[in-house]
């Protein structure tokens, strides 16, 4: 019985033809495709917020104190010698002094140990305003060449310190190696020479894997321009620890590099005499040179920043926690279960009294709800598991 | 054989159609178009397709293609498309430059990601285009019967059809091209056409062939048929056609009546012959189709601005960097002997700092490119595809009946679904199923029919629900331990009981629908059924009423062998419903001849049916202008009756004085019916004297045979003369059956704050009725109908006058709205297509729009497909809001393509709408879930994801920049190349994808319970500039913390107890570790929904970093260089490494955490509150409260049931308060 036979015959046809496809087209049920996977839905309830902030505070402040303490324990002697080690008659032309091959570069400095320094005492040289991180500089090396004798010719990245004029490769090539730091220090206490150990100042992996034991310096510093230190051509690169340390380019233009270790304790108020061979040119670019003697603690050298930062963040979190606690005590809106109240149809004056900030849903504090308030509070303390599964 | 196919003699349909089908006998010579000049050059040689193989008569073939690319053009076109994206172009430049020594990174690390990104997008394009191609192929290979010569016909695919071919189209087939109708199975050459796909109208249209081609009525007749058609060039105008046919050395004028358009369907006609005029892309429907535009979501467009912003930032810092570099190079570098400044290349030449600076600018642009995330596009694509999969896979949007799941056809608009402001909906097939059910009637002032319309049922349900919601104590006790809805139905309270009753009503109704129900008939009333009406006091009126039902129509019965009964082929589904109703009442319409109608009347008393015949004297057919139809019949007793049915207003105007007995009660019933969303018609009759009729008839015949422009007016005038002094019998109420769940869905959408416009090709009355049944209109709503008055002024003045009139109506209406004081007053705008064409003109459209925006609902009727698109564009561009168009037919294609989002209903109709759409769903009701759940989720996901993406790249990119300042702006990065490559690709991509795919602020149930949450998307609360810049500021802050904390901690001293100082690799690796931790922690705070997937991705990413660092360190030092064994040897043993990580991670996230807590406590957003309620499990423990929140959390709206119920409640309360003025005060909650 069909008032519109034609159209229904059309529909019938369509349904008939789709009948076999029907099952194949029906999406398969799985919790994944229906987006019903079990999930935990943590929300920042006041309890969690306060707990989190307090927890951060409690963890951070001790760490901060410990790091500050460790940093305080570190004894550090810093001596800037670049100016002092230039004879007074050259003070106007320091560059000429350092570039001249004739001048006497030896210079003696004496340092007072402020506190007992437990061995090992690490010896660093520090350069300021030296852009070891300049792109041109950083790229100017050949790791392949350093690693194996076979890749000796691999100097394409080393330009302009890749090859000497006759085309044979410089080993180690590149600006980094070429500008190797060449000041030397000799230490003595009460005329007794302190041995400076070079053991383990370079990363072991560098020595073992990156600097080949069969690679010997070749054509190094033989060009017209002499950069920094020369290398003993009979010692393989893997043993050239100063070079290895130097080749680890620093991140900042102010950097320290490990020179060696003094394996004896230094007593407080001891006077250390340092004989410096002041060879390295930092005068042309106004860089400073410093000699640093330092002990270490578990956080490394002397640096208060870590401790201060920890204390600041920890303190800030505690402060925030207190703020939130106060807020909930003074204005305990949160524990009231929110009454979402959209423009009651009964009376529009209620709407007018409610804050207009929330466009659709409002919290209101009606007398009726104060009863629920306590339940909410209790609940918020009782709930421990954070995951709710809603089916 | 063909002779027997014809129904000649049996019935002359054309005689039924008194106005439109009457053919003047004289040739209209003045109708011939001269057909000269441009635009009228087409010549078609009928039945000589060979002529059209050569130029200049070679027209395009009937092959259609809607694809964007073909095999040859794909690569260049698709690549061009890809590099139209600014970011891609930038990366292409970067990749090219990375081949030069300027680049800070290796070339592979630039090219590989780009190739991946572009490749992926192109693969997606290709796949989508392939699907379009397959669809085209399906259409192109449909078969149609073509004249092969010598009077034989054979089947060929559509694409083989050429201009000039003679084709034979059979019943219920689509026309393969635009055809000239030559003849049909009816011997007067008419045929019926359904143009649903063109204009959405479902009533059949009559087309008739020229008289001269009528003899071509069989296959053989075409053996020697030739003719020549001259006509207009292809154009998109569906309703005009100009041309003439040269046949037998005579010229005949052609008009639209002879043209069968492609994609319309042959109905009620066994076959037609036609000659092909326009093929393929020349056909009118194809000319009408616009190129499907590539749409981009609002968020994506906004994202472009962010990219521009970041690009500016990038250029800025690059400039700073290169100026710094140039200065350093010029003034300081000559002193840096260790760089050998005298031996440099152009890149670092102190003597030419400008040049070096320019080179450096390029380097810097590449280096800081991390500010612009290349992986963003890939990640978004991936996320959107996965989101689309979820939409496709959603079982809640799978329609069991048609077996169609929802389908996201383009995935790049997912998030737009969450921001829709206005829905523009088609009516037929979208809101309604185009099926009429006879539901109620009013006879002689008595209303019959106890069944409820869907609207009533839903309204009652809502009312009961609301009342119960307000009256909590009663059922809160029974609410415990059971789900809200179940308990609502099972509760023992009074309200619960009414609920149960309602439920049973609904379920019983549903059951009835399933099997024993008769399609088109839902009438339930014992007083009329099974012959009980004979006992009714108004038995005469009832008999008359039934006879009008059975007689006053133009349908044709078709015997149905299965049931022994009849099917009715009616022009409109209403008529079908009337005939079915008449049959069920015992007045079966069983046959029609040209002049007679046969009715089998069944009386329970007599047992077997009596067959009566009525002589049809005249038939005055229905037109939208007349709004009525009449038949003049003579019964067996010789009594002449005029039976009339029509719109109530029209009928009431024509009642005689003594015919108004039941006018008052009937009009009350009519109002009730209309309020219940039913289509109403009033029935009346008039007794005619033989003499009166014959006098009138002679005039009628005179009018019929008149030729010329006055004919219509004359016919109308003559009809008017007889259709007067009527006697009212009753009224009918037919339910235009809505699709399942439509009113509920509209209600929810309205609560979500969406505006709904209905654009329909249907009549105004129909549209208004549907407005009522969808609750878009209700009683008490002020309807603003804007129509054009017919002016009889001169042609050039008429247009102006009409325009002024429309403008005046618009202004008046606007003023009326502005003056309205009552906040609950709602307005509805109803406008018809003709008026709309004026209102859409440039100078008036903004006035129209502002009026429409102020109205709660807008209904546009009789609009053409083009107008639908224009309205859509007006709303889209005028209001700047996101629009969604939903429709099912080809007539909706324009609108679907024009709107920001097009949704197609994948029902039984053609595929055009679906093909043009961005999303397809099987039923309108799925729109709710698509928008409120998926749209909401997708919007938030994408918004948060993009914000986070920018955040993380700012964090990363800026640290690179800061470091530059410490390297003399030389372009050295602190991180290893590999770290940087992996940052976006592996180390941070999966968490952000999991955020974009799996994040749920609230569950889908909650989304549906709190439609107001949808407002967050409409207001764009998650992607406004505050939020974007907030995230960027957060990124800036984090980058500062990460960089300077690391810098100060690894300043110059030893970083471990063995005394070694940190080199660049160590600092870089530590800083990178901090970034990984900080950004992953950040995303964990951003998420509110952790499934195992999120846990895996977020924490897995952090682990991956360590694993990568470990493995990378273990690889050959040639690959890992300075990062060789860095974790094992240098970093891991140093406590400071771990301490820095912890410190920086926490320090980066504390402000966000504090902000979030602050916001939650002082300025919570809606979803925060809901999350909290859920978290405390209050929804389970205190269901009363939960329900109350649900019912309150909705956008105040003026449409939908809820608004209707509210209005009703207000009305009742108003009455109540008048009686007991004190009552109202108690409702006020004392504010504390």
From TrEMBL, chain A:
What GO terms fall under cellular component here?
endoplasmic reticulum; Golgi apparatus; plasma membrane
Give TM regions: 48-70, 308-330
Q: What is the similarity comment for this entry?
A: Belongs to the CDC50/LEM3 family.
Q: Where is this region: Disordered?
A: 1-32, 141-161
Protein's name in the database:
ALA-interacting subunit
Where found, per UniProt? Membrane
UniProt lists compositionally biased (Low complexity) regions at 1-18
Which key words are in the record? Answer: Membrane, Transmembrane, Transmembrane helix
Where composition is biased (Basic and acidic residues), the residues are 141-155
- Source organism per entry reads Tetracentron sinense (Spur-leaf)
TrEMBL record, chain B:
Q: Record's Pfam families? A: Cation_ATPase, PhoLip_ATPase_C, PhoLip_ATPase_N
User: Which EC number(s) are documented for this chain?
Assistant: 7.6.2.1
A biological-process GO annotation = phospholipid translocation
UniProt KW keywords: ATP-binding, Isopeptide bond, Magnesium, Membrane, Metal-binding, Nucleotide-binding, Translocase, Transmembrane, Transmembrane helix, Ubl conjugation
Main location (coarse class): membrane
The chain positions of domain P-type ATPase C-terminal read: 914-1164
Tell me which residues bind Mg(2+).
426, 428, 888, 892
Segments forming domain P-type ATPase N-terminal: 44-111
**Topological type in the membrane:** Multi-pass membrane protein
Q: Residues in the active site? A: 426 (4-aspartylphosphate intermediate)
PROSITE patterns attached to this UniProt entry: ATPASE_E1_E2
- Give the catalysed reaction(s), semicolon-separated: ATP + H2O + phospholipidSide 1 = ADP + phosphate + phospholipidSide 2
A single Gene Ontology CC term: plasma membrane
Which is an annotated GO molecular function term of this record? ATPase-coupled intramembrane lipid transporter activity
The UniProt similarity line reads:
Belongs to the cation transport ATPase (P-type) (TC 3.A.3) family. Type IV subfamily.
Check the record and name the PANTHER family matching this protein.
Answer: PHOSPHOLIPID-TRANSPORTING ATPASE, PROBABLE PHOSPHOLIPID-TRANSPORTING ATPASE
Designated name of the protein: Phospholipid-transporting ATPase
């Amino acid at each position: 019985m069909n008032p519109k036979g034609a159209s229904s015959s059309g529909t019938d046809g369509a349904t008939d033809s789709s009948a076999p496809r029907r099952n194949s087209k029906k999406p398969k049920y799985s919790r994944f495709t229906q987006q019903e996977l079990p999930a935990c839905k943590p929300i920042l309830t006041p309890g969690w917020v306060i707990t989190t902030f307090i927890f951060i505070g409690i963890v951070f402040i001790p760490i901060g104190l410990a790091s500050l303490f460790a940093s305080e324990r570190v004894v550090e002697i810093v001596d800037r010698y670049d100016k002092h080690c230039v004879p007074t008659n050259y003070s106007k032309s320091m560059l000429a002094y350092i570039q001249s091959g004739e001048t006497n570069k030896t210079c003696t400095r004496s340092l007072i140990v402020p506190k007992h320094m437990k061995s090992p005492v690490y010896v660093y040289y520090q350069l300021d305003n030296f852009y070891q991180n300049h792109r041109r500089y950083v790229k100017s090396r050949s790791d392949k060449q350093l690693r194996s004798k076979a890749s000796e010719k691999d100097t394409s990245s080393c330009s302009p310190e890749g090859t000497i004029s006759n085309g044979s490769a410089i080993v180690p090539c590149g600006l980094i190696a070429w500008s190797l730091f060449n000041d030397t220090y000799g230490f003595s206490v009460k005329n007794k020479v302190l041995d400076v150990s070079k053991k383990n100042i370079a990363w072991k992996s560098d020595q073992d894997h990156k600097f080949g034991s069969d690679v010997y310096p070749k054509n190094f510093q033989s060009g017209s321009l002499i950069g920094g230190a020369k290398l003993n051509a009979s010692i393989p690169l893997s043993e050239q620890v100063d070079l290895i340390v130097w080749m680890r380019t620093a991140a900042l233009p102010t950097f320290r590099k490990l020179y060696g270790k003094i394996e004896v304790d230094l007593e407080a108020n001891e006077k250390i005499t340092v004989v410096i061979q002041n060879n390295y040119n930092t005068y042309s670019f106004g860089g400073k040179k410093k000699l640093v003697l330092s002990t270490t603690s578990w956080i490394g050298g002397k640096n208060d920043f870590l401790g201060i930062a920890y204390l600041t963040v920890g303190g800030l979190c505690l402060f925030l926690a207190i703020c939130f606690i106060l807020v909930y005590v003074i204005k305990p809106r949160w524990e009231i279960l929110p009454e979402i109240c959209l423009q009651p149809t009964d009376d529009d004056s209620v709407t007018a009294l409610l804050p207009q900030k929330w466009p659709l849903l409002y919290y209101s504090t009606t007398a009726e709800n104060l009863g629920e308030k306590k339940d909410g509070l209790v609940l918020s303390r009782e709930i421990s598991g954070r995951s709710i599964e809603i089916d | 054989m063909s002779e027997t196919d014809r129904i000649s003699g049996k019935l002359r349909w054309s005689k039924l159609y008194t106005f439109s089908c009457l053919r003047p006998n004289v040739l209209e010579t003045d109708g011939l178009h001269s057909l000269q000049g441009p635009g009228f050059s087409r010549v078609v040689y009928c039945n000589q397709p060979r002529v059209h193989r050569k130029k200049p008569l070679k027209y395009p073939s009937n092959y259609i293609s809607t694809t964007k690319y073909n095999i040859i053009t794909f690569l260049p076109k698709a690549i061009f498309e890809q590099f139209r994206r600014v970011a891609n172009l930038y990366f292409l430049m970067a990749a090219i430059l990375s081949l030069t020594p300027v680049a800070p990174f290796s070339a592979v690390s630039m090219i590989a990601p780009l190739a991946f990104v572009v490749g992926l997008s192109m693969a997606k394009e290709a796949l989508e285009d392939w699907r379009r191609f397959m669809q085209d192929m399906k259409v192109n290979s449909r078969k149609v019967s073509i004249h092969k010569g010598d009077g034989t016909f054979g089947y060929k695919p559509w694409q083989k059809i050429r201009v000039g071919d003679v084709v034979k189209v059979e019943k219920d087939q689509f026309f393969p091209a635009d055809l000239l109708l030559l003849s049909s199975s009816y011997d007067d050459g008419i045929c019926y056409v359904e143009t649903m796909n063109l204009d959405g109208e479902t009533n059949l249209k009559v087309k008739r062939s020229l008289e001269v081609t009528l003899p071509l009525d069989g296959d053989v007749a075409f053996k020697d048929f030739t003719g020549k058609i001259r006509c207009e060039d292809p154009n998109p105008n569906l309703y005009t056609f100009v041309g003439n046919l040269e046949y037998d050395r005579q010229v005949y004028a052609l008009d639209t009546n002879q043209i069968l358009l492609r994609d319309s369907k042959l109905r009620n006609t066994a076959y037609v012959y036609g000659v092909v005029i326009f093929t393929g892309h020349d056909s009118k429907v194809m000319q009408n189709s616009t190129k499907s535009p590539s749409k981009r979501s609002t968020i994506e467009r906004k994202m472009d601005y962010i990219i521009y912003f970041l690009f500016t930032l990038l250029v800025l810092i690059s400039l700073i960097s290169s100026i710094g570099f140039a200065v350093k190079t010029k003034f300081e570098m000559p002193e840096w002997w260790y760089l050998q400044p005298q031996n440099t290349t152009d890149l670092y030449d102190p003597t030419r700092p400008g040049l070096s600076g320019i080179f450096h600018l390029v380097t810097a642009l590449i280096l800081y490119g991390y500010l612009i995330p290349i992986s963003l596009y890939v990640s978004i694509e991936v996320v959107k595809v996965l989101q689309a999969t979820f939409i496709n896979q959603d079982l809640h949007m799978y329609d069991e009946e048609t077996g169609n799941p929802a389908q996201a056809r383009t995935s790049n608009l997912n998030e737009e679904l969450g921001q829709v402001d206005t829905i523009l909906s088609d009516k037929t097939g979208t809101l309604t199923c185009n099926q009429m059910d006879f539901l109620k009637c009013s006879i002689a002032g008595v209303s019959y029919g106890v069944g409820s319309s869907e609207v009533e049922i839903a309204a009652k349900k809502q009312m009961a629900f609301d009342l119960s919601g307000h009256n909590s104590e009663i059922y809160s006790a029974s609410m415990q331990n059971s789900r809200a809805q179940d308990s609502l139905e099972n509760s023992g309270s009074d309200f619960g009981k009414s609920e149960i009753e309602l439920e049973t009503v609904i379920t019983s109704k549903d059951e009835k629908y399933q099997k024993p129900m008769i399609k088109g008939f839902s009438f339930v009333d014992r007083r009329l059924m099974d012959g009980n009406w004979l006992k009714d006091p108004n038995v005469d009126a009832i008999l008359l009423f039934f006879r009008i039902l059975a007689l006053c129509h133009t349908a044709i019965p078709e015997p149905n062998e299965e049931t022994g009964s009849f099917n009715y082929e009616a022009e409109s589904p209403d008529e079908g419903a009337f005939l079915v109703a008449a049959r069920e009442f015992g007045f079966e319409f069983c046959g029609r001849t040209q002049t007679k109608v046969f009715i089998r009347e069944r009386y329970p008393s007599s047992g077997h049916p009596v067959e009566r015949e009525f002589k049809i004297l005249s038939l005055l057919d229905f037109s939208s202008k007349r709004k009525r139809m009449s038949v003049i019949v003579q019964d067996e007793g010789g009594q002449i009756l005029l039976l009339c049915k029509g719109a109530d207003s029209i009928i009431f105007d024509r009642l005689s004085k003594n015919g108004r007995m039941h006018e008052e009660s009937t009009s009350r019933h009519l109002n009730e019916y209309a309020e219940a969303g039913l289509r109403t018609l009033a029935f009346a009759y008039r007794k005619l004297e033989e003499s009166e009729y014959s006098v009138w008839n002679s005039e009628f015949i005179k009018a019929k045979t008149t030729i010329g422009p006055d004919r219509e007016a004359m016919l109308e005038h003559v009809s008017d003369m007889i259709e007067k002094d009527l006697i009212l019998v009753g009224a009918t109420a037919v339910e235009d059956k809505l699709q399942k769940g439509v009113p509920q869905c509209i209600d929810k959408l309205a609560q979500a704050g969406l505006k709904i416009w209905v654009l329909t090709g249907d009549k105004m009355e129909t549209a208004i009725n549907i407005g009522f049944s969808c609750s878009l209109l209700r009683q008490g709503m002020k309807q603003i109908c804007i129509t054009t008055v017919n002016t009889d002024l001169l042609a050039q003045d008429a247009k102006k006058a009409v325009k002024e009139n429309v403008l005046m109506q618009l202004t008046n209406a606007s003023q009326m709205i502005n003056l309205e004081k009552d906040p609950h007053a709602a307005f509805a705008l109803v406008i018809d297509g003709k008026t709309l064409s004026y209102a859409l003109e440039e100078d008036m459209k903004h006035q129209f729009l502002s009026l429409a925006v102020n109205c709660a609902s807008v209904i546009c009727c009789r609009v053409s497909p083009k107008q639908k698109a224009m309205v859509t564009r007006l709303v889209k561009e005028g209001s700047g809001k996101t629009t969604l168009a939903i429709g099912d037919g080809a007539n909706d294609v324009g609108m679907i393509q024009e709107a920001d989002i097009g949704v197609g209903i994948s029902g039984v109709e053609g595929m055009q709408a679906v093909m043009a759409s961005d999303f397809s769903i099987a039923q309108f009701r799925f729109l709710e879930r698509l928008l409120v759940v998926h749209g909401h989720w997708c919007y938030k996901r994408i918004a948060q994801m993009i914000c986070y993406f920018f955040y993380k790249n700012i964090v990363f990119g800026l640290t690179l920049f800061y470091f530059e300042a410490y390297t003399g702006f030389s372009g050295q990065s602190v991180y290893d190349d590999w770290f940087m490559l992996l940052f976006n690709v592996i180390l941070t991509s999966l968490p952000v994808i999991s955020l974009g795919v799996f994040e749920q602020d609230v569950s889908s149930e909650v989304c549906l319970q709190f439609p107001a949450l949808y407002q967050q998307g409409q207001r764009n609360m998650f992607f406004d500039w505050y939020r974007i810049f907030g995230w960027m500021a957060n990124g800036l802050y984090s980058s500062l913390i990460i960089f300077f904390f690391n810098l100060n901690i690894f300043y110059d001293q030893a970083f471990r107890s063995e005394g070694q100082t940190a080199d660049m690799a160590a600092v870089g690796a530590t800083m990178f570790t901090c970034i990984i931790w900080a950004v992953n922690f950040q995303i964990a705070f951003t998420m509110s929904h952790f499934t195992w997937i999120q846990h895996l991705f977020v924490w897995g990413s952090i682990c991956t970093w360590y694993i990568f660092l470990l493995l990378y360190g273990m690889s050959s030092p040639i690959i890992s260089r300075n990062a060789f064994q860095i974790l094992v040897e240098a970093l891991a043993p140093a406590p400071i490494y771990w301490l820095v990580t912890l410190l920086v991670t926490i320090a980066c996230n504390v402000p966000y955490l504090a902000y979030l807590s602050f916001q939650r406590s002082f300025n919570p957003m809606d979803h925060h509150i809901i999350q909290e309620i859920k978290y405390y499990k209050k929804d389970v423990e205190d269901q009363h409260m939960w329900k109350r929140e649900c019912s309150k959390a909705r956008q105040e709206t003026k449409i939908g049931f809820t608004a209707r119920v509210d209005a009703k409640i207000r009305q009742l309360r108003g009455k109540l308060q008048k009686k007991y003025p004190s009552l109202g005060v108690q409702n006020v909650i004392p504010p504390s």
